[in-house]
Design a protein that fits this description.
The complex is a heterotetramer, with two copies of chain A and two copies of chain B. Chain A is an alpha/beta fold. Chain A has eleven helices and seven strands. Chain B is globular and about 60 Å long. The complex binds thiamine diphosphate (2 copies) and magnesium ion (2 copies). One thiamine diphosphate sits at the interface of chains A and B.
Chain lengths: ~325, ~325, ~325, ~325
């Protein structure tokens, strides 16, 4: 594998950025600073990290309701993310989207998405665009295990397959769709096996191992860039929290939870980096501290940012005119 | 007489019929042990077991398709679509099949099925989790559409919906779940009968769903300013109680309609059109619609509050109409 | 296999009934007697025949836009079918449905269906009903190769699989969805392979061989009745005509067409029956003649039947009241 | 000046833009060599090749999703949904995503995409192949909705739709394809501008799509009976040319609106409501709506003819309004 030390260091930073962003969001939600539905990526950091490390700035991703990790890994700016979570006018979506709709066209982030399964066929469109315009771009499409039972999964994989589109379908199998365990929502063990239905490669990897994810994505992306079409990568992982904040997740088996938390991705990656002499504990601690500061700055930015103005509610429906606003 | 919340009333109606009729069952995403995304079916899994309170995969199309197929073959399913927003995924099953089947098949197949789903803004859930799309459903021949407000109405109308032999879409508003009220009857309330929630003589405010609560507050405020508002809750959107509306308009000669829909193409608009078309001479002034804005539902509270048709918007509309 | 001679004789009659009904419809359409869209089942007769021979009267089927064969095989009455095609008030649907919507609840026929893929999840509902009510009923669900790219296919097979529903998914792979050949609309050869994605059995059979279809269906239905869940059966066949009458089907390879017509199911079944001493040529000719008479009677019934009354347009929207009708 | 059919005009508009802009492409079911279910793209495959006139599998959701994703990333796709009836399958992609994206993302992603689809009864195709569901789309913030009638309007408005940076739903009527007319301009016609198809002074008949042709015939008949009808074709349903409507109503004081939709919840109803709400004092009589019935579309010609809003229904409505 051709991963450089620099990339691995970058991956470490990415994972820590996700972890700390999410932990902070968890607190902010508990303290009532973040409204709405909040779905955290805690425990799944290795996936976005491993995949996005392979992507260029002009590559695309589609994301889900649980999107913060993807956005951070693709280079999203925490300041604007935080401001969006807070509903501020400086947020990525000017406070119109919130946690479930963060997007950044300049970074190729085609949006978090509140509709389960919606990202899959948007990714097909992005892939079509890359192929049609004959660029070397690709689109990585993140989605959960639960979403693989939506019709969109099926239609998207089929269409990407016949058109040999440069799309990497990344299934984050955290073993639950809200309260429904994978073993109850489908009668197969490896979601990767579904690739055969479309005549495309399917691989299952340890989603808590950033290097394993990196490797699988690297191969899939190389295939895609060569015009050989899509790949389905299943990353096995675990959702640490409830489905959304506020869900006590009583349906989880505490033993399983414990086992998965023991295999936690950030610590594992730290150990890997240390063992392989890529980074020392001190260097990593330094990164941690820098990220702490980044979060602090982002929170401050968000807190100090103004709320949207009510009269802005009618803007951005269309590109060329504003909608009427009620005057009170 | 019993005090109940809207949520409890809905749960009670389902439970009553499930106790009486083994062919009634509930399915949907996370309706089982989890008790539903909002807790509506909490406890029902324990009472009725996994066959009758059944978790589905995330497959809204198949949920409505399964409701259709099972209703056609002897069951009386209640299918829950977690949010109205996700009914988009199942529009084909609901419209091209469930709604039209009885007609396409020359009246020979009946579909006693209820689709329960959840509407409404107000919880900072943004564009894909907050809509109120009842206009889509009321436009479709073959569907009945119910959108009650009070616990008593929710209970009685859900019983009637389960008893009905046609596909019924039953709307619930996520903010309304906590609203409490007295429940004195455990009988079905016939679909198609509206209700006067407050009598008045100067203006008829037609409101349904959560807007009933906002309209009642508005009426209270108006009362203080010497304007007597009647609050008419159609409860069932289709069939619509046109007689009750005609009666009320015949008395007040002024109509304000409020709903949480996007204003353009709203069912409130259909009511406005029908009032103007059929009761033109009874009207002292043009009808006014107090709906949500024609924008996707925004996330930030400031914007969402501007989006939602608030109590004061109703008050203002009534006053503006009298000027 | 436990098929009796009587069943085989019945299968012969069914195949001939379908063949002759469709040939007659083809002519009637050409002569302007049948309006609307007409999708013929010519060349695919063995599938409906082989499957439905295994079904009881109270078993269910769901069908497609190309539904005449299924309806005949499940016991549909040609008189009411013909009257429906003619738009007469005595038709199965009182003239309200036409070719694409014929249904007969008493025979378990849950309707032809003009929406590609719609039958799949209606069949799941029927299967749920059979299982829930603990009857021994099953539902056979017919659909085309093209429809296997719709999301409904995927959702239905997944749901039927996890609930172990008594549904037999019968894919009629006639190698085209309108003008798009199977080789272009999906990157796999055997649609039966998609069964693996749901952990259920999948088998591919020669769809022009009535006995092969019978056999595969027999096994699947036995499994279903035993509570072992659904099966996907792919029947390879060929659409003789254009997609609908009026389509010259220029996109078809004439050589392929010729090869498939040479493998035509009715003639093959005749040979099989004769070779195995089940029926003599004379006996079969007699059946043919009887069916000719049945068709004649059906046409006469349809022709002599009254048109619907315009004022009936508002009936049957709901079970309990009529819709308003315009007065002209 | 050239005589063209509606179908040719639509094909011409697509071809013009595809010749000019390599980022414009067409995809949908059987649009390639087959030329589309109704023949609209006949010959385009030969001119533009399989990459640009692209057959899709039967996956309407993925078709709209692919349009959305490709529009967001540099293309200007035209996606064909074979019939409006099948848009039900893709409502989620079209509404929760394509329509809302620009807003949800704070104005930062543009979606220059056109969804072309085919409406209408009259060919004995029954309930699942004959609907006119424009009301669903006009209700959705973020979509523009175009429904032109004449070849000239089809050409100019499709050019403008392709040029637009918002998702546009472009309706065609299957019976209208054969209508011929003169085409003198190959320039875009701006979205949101209506057109007076025939001037008149006694009543404004608002009609769009195929109903324009029926309305023109009705106007001719009325003329003979001494009633001067103006036929106003909004052409774009949203944004709606309210100014033109106000102008016409200010002159005629009477409004009849016709569309082939199910009457209840129709966009015709929205227009009726808006006229009554905003031009109440200009009206001499209540608006009338001449729509299809509130039944699924029946198969048999006798029934289908009763379902469709016919020329004589428009004539009758205008006359009844004057009584
Ligand atoms: C179409 C649709 N149906 C249902 C939901 C409600 N919902 C939100 S997230 C979710 C579970 C998704 O599970 P999975 O795909 O495994 O993702 P995870 O939450 O585990 O990351 C559900 C059912 C939705 N947002 N959209
Ligand atoms: C949802 C939907 N999309 C498109 C169509 C138009 N259509 C009717 S039949 C058909 C092809 C179906 O192919 P297949 O499933 O292979 O069945 P076959 O016609 O070959 O029997 C299409 C695209 C439709 N009726 N419904
Ligand atoms: Mg999951
Ligand atoms: Mg086929």
């Amino acid at each position: 594998m051709d991963v450089t030390k620099e990339q691995m260091r970058h991956m470490y930073r990415t994972m820590v950025r996700i972890r700390k962003f999410e932990s902070n969001a968890q607190n902010d939600f508990a303290n009532g600073k973040i409204p709405g539905f909040l779905h955290l990526y805690l425990g799944e950091e290795a996936i976005a990290t491993g995949v996005c490390e392979n992507l260029n700035k002009d590559d695309f991703i589609t994301s889900t309701h649980r999107g913060h990790g993807h956005i951070i890994a693709k280079g999203g700016d925490m300041k604007y993310m935080m401001a969006e979570l807070y509903g501020k006018s400086t947020g990525y979506c000017k406070g119109k989207g919130g946690s479930m709709h963060i997007a950044d066209r300049d970074l190729g982030i085609l949006g978090a998405n509140g509709i389960v399964g919606a990202g899959q066929d948007i990714a097909v469109g992005a892939g079509l665009s890359c192929k049609y315009r004959k660029t070397q771009q690709v689109c990585a499409c993140f989605f959960g295990d639960g979403s693989t039972n939506q019709g969109t999964f099926h239609e998207a994989l089929n269409m990407a397959s016949i058109w040999k589109l440069p799309v990497i379908f990344v299934c984050e199998n955290n073993h639950f769709g809200i309260s429904m365990s994978q073993s109850r929502h489908q009668a197969i063990k490896d979601i990767a096996d579904r690739a055969a239905a479309y005549g495309i490669p399917g691989v299952a990897v340890d989603g808590n191992d950033a290097m394993a994810v990196y490797e699988a994505a690297n191969e899939a992306i190389a295939r895609a860039r060569k015009g050989q079409g899509p790949t389905l990568i299943e990353c096995k992982t675990w959702r640490w929290r409830g489905h959304f904040e506020g869900d006590p997740a009583i349906y989880k088996d505490p033993k399983e939870q414990e086992e998965w938390v023991a295999r936690e991705p950030v610590k594992r990656f730290r150990e890997f980096l240390e063992e392989n002499g890529v980074m020392t504990a001190d260097e990593m601690d330094k990164v941690d501290a820098e990220v702490d500061q980044e979060i602090k700055d982002a929170v401050q930015f968000a807190e100090e940012s103004p709320l949207p103005k009510p009269e802005d509610v009618g803007k951005d429906v269309y590109t060329d005119f504003d909608e009427e606003v009620r005057v009170r | 007489m019993k005090t109940m919340s809207v949520m409890e009333a809905i749960r009670e109606a389902m439970s009553i019929r499930m106790r009486e009729d083994p062919n009634v069952l509930l399915f949907g995403e996370d309706v089982g042990k989890f008790g539903g995304c909002f807790g509506v079916s909490a406890g029902m899994f324990d009472e009725f077991g996994p066959e009758r309170v059944r978790d589905t995969p995330i497959s809204e199309g198949a949920i409505i398709g399964a409701a259709t197929g099972s209703a056609a073959t002897g069951l009386r399913p209640i299918a829950e679509i977690m949010m109205d927003d996700f009914i988009t995924v199942a529009m084909d099953q609901l419209v091209n099949n469930a709604a039209f089947m009885h007609y396409m098949f020359g009246g020979k197949i009946e579909l006693p099925m209820v689709v329960r789903t959840v509407n409404g803004a107000g919880v900072n859930a943004a564009a894909q989790h907050s809509k109120s799309m009842e206009a889509w459903l009321t436009h479709v021949p073959g569907l009945k559409v119910v959108y009650p407000s009070t616990p008593q109405d929710c209970l009685g109308l859900l019983l009637a919906s389960i008893d009905d032999n046609n596909p019924v879409v039953f709307f619930e508003h996520k903010i309304a779940y906590g609203e409490k009220g007295e429940v004195s009857s455990f009988d079905p309330i016939p679909l198609g009968k509206g209700d006067i929630k407050k009598e008045g003589s100067d203006v008829t405010i037609i409101a349904y769903g959560y807007q009933v609560f906002r309209a009642l507050k508005a009426a209270e405020q108006l009362e203080k300013e010497g304007i007597s508002a009647e609050v008419l809750d159609p409860r069932t959107l289709y069939p619509l109680d046109k007689d009750l509306i005609a009666e009320s308009v015949g008395k007040t000669h002024n109509v304000v309609i409020t709903s949480e829909e996007f204003k353009r193409g709203s069912y409130a608009g259909e009511i406005s059109a029908f009032v103007a078309e059929e009761m033109f001479d009874s009207l002292d002034a043009p009808c006014r619609r107090v709906c949500a804005l024609n924008t996707p539902v925004p996330f930030s509270a400031v914007l969402e509050n501007a989006f939602i048709p608030q109590t004061e918007d109703i008050v203002n509309a009534v006053k503006a109409q009298r000027e």
